[in-house]
TrEMBL record:
Its EC number is 1.14.11.33. GO terms for cellular component: cytoplasm. It holds the Pfam family 2OG-FeII_Oxy_2. It comes from Paracoccus shanxieyensis. Fe cation binds at residues 119, 121, 175. The keyword 4Fe-4S does not apply. It comes from the Bacteria. GO terms for biological process: oxidative RNA demethylation. Substrate binds at residues 57, 64-66, 123, 149. The lineage of its organism: Bacteria, Pseudomonadati, Pseudomonadota, Alphaproteobacteria, Rhodobacterales. It is an enzyme of class 1 (oxidoreductase). Binds 1 Fe(2+) ion per subunit. One of its GO terms (molecular function) is oxidative RNA demethylase activity. This is DNA oxidative demethylase AlkB. The gene is alkB.
Amino acid sequence: RKEMIGPGAVILRGFAQDPELLQGVARVAEVAAFRHFQTPGGRQIGVQMTNCGALGWISDRRGYRYDAQDPLTGQPWPAMPDAFAALARDAASQAGYVGFSPDACLINRYVPGVKMGLHQDRDEARMEAPIVSVSLGLPAMFQFGGTDRKDPVRRYALDHGDVVVWGGPARLAWHGVLTLKDGAHPDTGRARINLTFRRAA
Ligand code: MD3
Ligand code: FE
């Protein structure tokens, strides 16, 4: 089921069903562990993060950026599992973006009590490519506004298996995730996992 939530933004409810996705997350995290990055201001980000693919999103006292190496190990990020790349390409194509080939997959892990404040994603060199996001595990309330910080925001519940594609006029929209409610999911336990596929370079 395709749900248009604004110009350039589409929710594909239940599109991600493949158990390989969570197996892939587990395999990535064995090599590149989930960790709390520091912000440039010296605070810890509440969401735990890791990456796979050629480039990974990182943050430290020097700023936010994409890097080919995991700063914890000095090694390249683990390769993007085939099931990840295939899902991202299929979802983008369903939303009208044919030929999406992500080079970066950020994996976010939320536990109850954790949120992600309103922000824009502007660290990518290729703003013409969409972003594909996959929600797994505990449900979350997603906030989605306009390209101006003051634009009104709407809220959408995102459940296990929901995929959202953001591109074109939605690419620079302000967005965030409300504080995760307590609960347990059969596949992830007390956690929500979000995969975010991007063309960073
Ligand atoms: C709307 N992650 O990692 S994914 C992020 O659920 C991030 O973990 C959230 O925002 C999460 O940067 C939301 C959905 C998403 C991703 C990118 C967007 C929504 C977006 C870019 C533009 C507009
Ligand atoms: Fe974001």
